[in-house]
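quick one, 143 residues, struct below
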Amino acid sequence: MSDNETNAEVEDKVLQVLKKIDTSITKDAIDFVHRLRGKPKPDQNKKCPSIIVRFIARKTRNNIYSSRKKLKSAEFNDPRIDRVFINENLTSRKKHLLAQANQKRKDLHWMYLWTNNGRMHLRKNENGAVITIQTEDDLHRIK
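---
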């Protein structure tokens, strides 16, 4: 990533990644893309700023988001692309709650924590019941 990278270049990179999930996706499916700019933290000097993508249709967004696991095994021809994560853009309150839920997951040795449409879900193991987390009280009830 260069400092003078254009939105068109960012969009091309996004499409390269998204084609690993959905080969039929085109530029017409994307409303806009942009990199988040901010002060780099000392431990993140080499980390590229995140990219925000808004799709024209929610259905496209949902299909991409639900298929994001395909990226774990994806290989890219671009040496600058190492690992790619697709996450929801959460409010600061939800991000804070997600961080607390992740700590609780680690403390209890639970396996799964994910978000979907802004809601957090936690599951102990593959066969465990899914618990939806909406408040800190929900976290305190988990044992």
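The chain has four helices and five strands.
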